[in-house]
Amino acid sequence: MSKIRVMDAHLANMIAAGEVVERPSGILKELIENALDANSTIIEIHIEEGGMKHLSVIDNGDGMDATDLVNAFKRHSTSKIFSELDLNQINSFGFRGEALPSIASVSTVMIQTNDGKDGHEILVDNGQQKRLTVFARNKGTTVIVENLFLKVPARLKYIKNTRYETSIISDIINKFAIAHPDVSFRLIDEEKELFRSYGDGNIDNVFYQVFGSSVASNAMKIKERDYDFEIEGVFAQPEHTRAARHFIWLYINDRMIRHSVISNAIIEGFRRHIPNDRFPIGVLKINVDPQLVDVNVHPSKWEIRLSKDRELVALILNSLEDKLTHKTRIPKVKILDEQASMMDELLKEPVLEKTESIIIEKPVSLVEVTKSDEIPFEEKVQDESIFIDNTFKSEPVLEETKESHQKEAIYIEEEIQATEAIESSIIEPLTVLSQMSGKYVLAKGETGLYIIDQHAAMERVRYEYYQDKLLNKQVDSQLLLMPLIFDGRSSLVHREDTVKDAFKMFQMDLDVFDESSFILREVPLWIKEKELLEFVNKTLDYLETHRTIREEDFRSDTLATLACHSSVRFNAYMSQLEMETLVSQLRAARQPLHCPHGRPTLMVIEEKDILKRFMR
Hints:
Layout: H1 9-20, H2 24-37, E1 42-48, E2 54-59, H3 66-71, H4 84-87, H5 99-104, E3 108-114, E4 119-125, E5 128-134, E6 140-146, H6 153-156, H7 162-179, E7 184-189, E8 192-196, H8 203-211, H9 213-216, E9 220-225, E10 229-235, E11 241-242, E12 248-252, E13 255-257, H10 260-270, E14 279-280, E15 282-288, E16 293-294, E17 305-306, H11 309-328, H12 332-348, E18 358-361, E19 365-367, H13 377-382, H14 402-417, H15 420-423, E20 431-436, E21 440-444, E22 448-453, H16 454-471, E23 477-486, H17 490-493, H18 496-504, E24 510-514, E25 517-524, H19 529-545, H20 551-565, H21 576-588, E26 602-606, H22 607-613
Parallel strand pairs: 1-7, 12-15
Antiparallel strand pairs: 1-2, 2-6, 3-4, 3-6, 4-5, 7-8, 9-10, 10-15, 11-14, 12-13, 16-17, 18-19, 20-21, 21-22, 22-26, 23-25, 24-25
Helix pairs in contact: 2-7, 7-8, 10-11, 14-21, 16-20, 16-21, 19-20
């Protein structure tokens, strides 16, 4: 008896659906691509329960007649390609003829369409056509998908909560809107509008809507071409970054794709302008001859194969480097020399004279020197995050003289030396000598010469400071004079409970402001206002890239990031008092030898080795 049999069409469609229909967002992507292929300029999407209960796409495209409407549900039926030659130069988004029959095999699908002459409606329930009737509507097509996976329960266990599915759908719509600024998109979740673009053809407007005002402000635009490729992109300034590469959006011939080589090229282009653990935010659209691109790699059509990718990488790198260099590079040598001489002059003078703010290396350091009757001396030093134990203490204004400097130093030193941590420190008492290159503090001890990484050392101090504050559950809070709004976070709004619980760990109450924003009205006293924006954004970044969080890891990673960004940077010059305070606080730390990220905070060159090198 023969064992091999041809499976029936319905079973084949259900198997094919496994590659195309993984979740509601996959269905939505296929339906929107069909609408775009039909020359639609207005596309409206309605969803309920994350698209599982109901998902509909309404367009004003070309529509279909009755014959095409029936054929659309037949596997491998398509209006996009007809020969092998067409397969080598695909200009449409859809071409495989598998999406609609696959969707209909695991759900109930109703299509209402009008080709400008007649209107019809068809109903297909889990692969079985139920009816085909005349239907009145304007030119265009409405596709309604309901009860997804109702008869395929094995699939349901891989679907997460509806808010998560809604966030993925929102992300897909954002990507489509960026790729097609000339098309109006509208997303409605159970009668609530989550997103709308106006189809005015201006990509800047869509970029603003998707990423928010702070990221979109002064965004950089690139536009270059060579013999094979034309690239056009919009990127946020290097000061705006994310913790993962998910916000690098790529398109080839307006088709959204994933391509590691192109993503790495963009990251490499930004590498000298952003921290190593951060990633840029931006959109890159590539236009190329379709014969150089193979989009027939996977049914989902996210993956492609690209010819001449080396030439494309070179074009991207050169374009980004030219733009970033022109817009963001500061002459470091000149500014550093100016800063060094300025600090030398200030240290020689008993009274600090008023001068302009000096930027050493944006965003590395901002040193402001003001008159003594404007800001207390302690606050000036704390502006570089040195006196962390006195962050919110209100001290009387001190006269800026050598005597007041000495009094302040004695007050701080006595407070620190009173702790048992200093007495039991594994680091011997040190005498600060100087600072080297604005990066390292040089100190001497009985053992020899110590070289202290000022940034790593302060990271450790700040990290333990924040740990201690979090352990104290009775910390007072203060209302912000101007509440802070964090926009461009539509993917997190639907995870409101997770976000609120995460911020409660840090004694903050973050509320949803609208469909893409959060608002913060009150903060604990242990965090400075200048650190607040960075802290909240980094925490939101973490939540965007981690769908599930382990409380201990989340708190540790977030505090380490906050400690890093609130610490003194390389190329930031410190006074003698600041260096002495930092060394004392490092000696008092519970784990003083490494920063929270595992880098060493200091090293020592023993005196015997120095003598040996000088042949003594």
